[in-house]
Amino acid sequence: MKTINFNITALEAEYHELSEQDKALVDAAKNATRNSYAPYSGFRVGAAILLDNGTVITGSNQENAAFPSGTCAERSACFYAAAQHPGVPFKKIAIAAWPSGKEPSQCTPQEWESLFQALPISPCGACRQALLEYENKYSDIQVILFGREKVYIFPSIKSLLPFSFVEF
Ligand code: THU
After folding, report:
1. Which of 14, 63, 74, 111 is catalytic?
2. What topology does CATH give the domain 11-160?
């Protein structure tokens, strides 16, 4: 027997270090948190997917009184993108979380900005699996996880989901 490693490597950056294209994608994910429906958790999440044709698709978490019926921001963006733009590869996804429980429209722009998570959140296993399907069908999807203090950039979904189930 021997030990084998499945390593995860990411880039750590600050928002101001991102390219203009990546800043715009992060901004789209942040703005998408406004459309979140999260009356049960108070935890708003936004996702923005850049398609290969330059289109940006956003999604947000949509909760439901029957809890498992709700869905995460990443899957809402992913399935909308695939349904509306079949055959178009995903290039990047940006994700941002606004966990305050407040009503965004009641906040000043400064307060709204300050209430994003300082550190990034990471997509859940189900969202990684859903995104992986499109990555395997097309090409690597870069993942940009926004935090006010740190931004993490992963080169692909598979880097976040090593040793994944891919086919049967
Ligand atoms: N959530 C997302 O939308 N994306 C994630 O990456 C993690 C969690 C949502 C699900 C639920 O509506 C709320 O955040 C609290 O878990």
Report:
1. 74
2. Cytidine Deaminase; domain 2 (3.40.140)
